[in-house]
Design a protein that fits this description.
This protein is an alpha/beta fold. The chain folds into two domains: 150 residues, Aspartate Aminotransferase, domain 1, CATH 3.90.1150.10; 276 residues, Aspartate Aminotransferase, domain 2 (3-Layer(aba) Sandwich), CATH 3.40.640. The chain contains 17 helices and 15 strands.
Length: 442
């Protein structure tokens, strides 16, 4: 049953990552979702071209996941995760590590990508301390990187707007690699840009500045997502791995977006053939039906913690909802669907067509750049003078109200994350609708 909402209700909600005053003048309200469509409060069916928030790649309300959640709620709603465990959490850890890259046989459950990142950073710092390398306290992120919104994540993150209000209290001992995006050399890239692999050598500069033996970890998104779909240049991730190994630094891949088929493989680590030491996940783990995340670690990292008396807690960290049984049931069902329906192969097969239709706008006079890799795409619009972000927001709203289409805008960059089992015709219709909108923008 649809919940009636009043203007007071709307005013009561402080919305995340939203221009609240602008939004509340004409609220865009969703009341239902099924398959590849949302239902708006006014009854319209809206095609979801962002599959949730990069996160519902199997389609909304997938019946197998719905059934698993409903059943679990009648069986076990919650169990404490400290000094106890539940059957679904153990089963999901087994399934998840089974599909992870070789050598990742241990998973720590969280409730979001932000928590996964902070957990990964704490594991990295703790690992070096347990090894007797307590001087390794420095963390390295990357400009334009997004790693969630907790203090650790925004400290290693490199999106200025996410940091500015809190800059006085971000964690100490953090530095940033230069970002990899260069419009002059890599505009309208299809997949990995040929230019830019050398930018990984910026880690050498930071190692020289801070001392490589003082750096605990480097964290990067294999493909930068929230900053506007920035694929890694050819050779970049390989060189970063090489330098981390050389200096004894842990390499963390933030795969909250890229895991579970988004780039046509189980993990971006698989697609690019580069193995990190720690992998963060969330979003697609449960197809976003129930919030959940996980941190995967190489066996050597886990075993390093397994010291001291057997009764001693090895790492003082965790959450009330770590491995929540209902979330774990959703995760088990989502991974079963992923494998049974061959989702990674479906996503890989869609990549070429998605690339073609999105890059059909390369020469549009309103378009500054188009970037694609896997089922991740961005159309960067030319910003208005003295009004950055205004044109992108207007396009987002016009798609919703005039084209029955949901996309995401980050400032003037329109972002796309098709369903992993999308229909090619729907991708073509999406781009046609977006073209119609930007044709009319001033």
């Amino acid at each position: 049953m649809t919940q009636a909402i009043s203007q007071r209700d709307i005013e009561a909600l402080w919305m995340p990552f939203t221009a609240n005053r602008d939004f509340k003048k004409q609220p865009k309200t969703i009341v239902a979702a099924k398959g590849h469509y949302y239902q708006a409060a006014d009854g319209r069916q809206l095609y979801d071209a962002f599959s949730g928030l990069w996160s519902c790649g199997l389609g909304h309300s997938h019946p197998k996941i719905v059934e698993a959640v409903q059943h679990q709620l009648t069986e076990l709603d919650y169990a404490m995760a400290f000094q106890m465990g539940n059957d679904k959490a153990f089963a999901l850890a087994g399934k998840l590590t089974e599909m992870a890259p070789a050598g990742f046989n241990h998973a720590f459950f969280t409730n979001s990508g932000s928590e996964s990142v902070d957990t990964a950073l704490k594991i990295a710092l703790g690992y070096h301390r347990v090894k007797g390398e307590a001087q390794r306290t420095r963390l390295i992120g990357r400009e334009r990187g997004y790693h969630g919104v907790n203090f650790g994540g925004i400290s290693v993150g490199g999106i200025a707007a996410n940091r500015q209000l809190f800059s006085a209290n971000l964690i100490n001992g953090v530095d940033h690699l230069s970002h990899t995006y260069n419009l002059e050399h890599a505009a309208f890239s299809r997949g990995q840009p040929e230019w830019g692999g050398h930018l990984a050598d910026d880690l050498e500069r930071l190692a020289a500045l801070h001392g490589g033996a003082n750096i605990a970890a480097v964290i990067v998104e294999p493909v930068a997502g929230s900053a506007g779909i920035l694929p890694p240049p050819v050779g970049y991730l390989e060189r970063l791995r090489e330098l981390c190994t050389e200096h004894g630094i842990l390499l963390i891949f933030d795969e909250v977006i890229t895991a579970f088929g988004r780039v046509g493989a189980n993990f971006a680590a698989d697609r690019f053939g580069v193995m990190p030491d720690i992998i963060t996940t969330a979003k697609g783990l449960t197809n976003s039906m129930i919030p959940m995340g996980a941190v995967l670690v190489r066996d050597e990292i886990y075993q390093t913690f397994m010291q001291g008396p057997d009764q001693a807690i090895e790492m003082f960290h965790g959450y009330t909802y770590s491995g929540h049984p209902v979330a774990a049931a959703a995760g088990l069902a989502a991974l079963e669907v992923f494998h049974e329906e061959g989702i990674a192969a479906q996503a890989k097969a869609l990549e070429s067509g998605f690339e073609t239709v999105l890059h059909s706008l390369d020469n549009h006079p309103m378009v500054k750049d188009v970037r694609t890799i896997g089922l991740m795409g961005a159309i960067e619009l030319i910003p208005r003078d003295n009004a950055p972000g205004a044109r992108g927001l207007e396009a987002h709203k016009a798609c919703f109200w005039e084209q029955d289409l949901v996309i995401r805008n980050a400032m003037d960059t329109l972002q796309f994350a098709p369903f992993l089992n999308a229909k090619p015709d729907d991708l073509e219709k999406t781009v046609a609708a977006v073209k119609s909108v930007i044709d009319g923008l001033l």
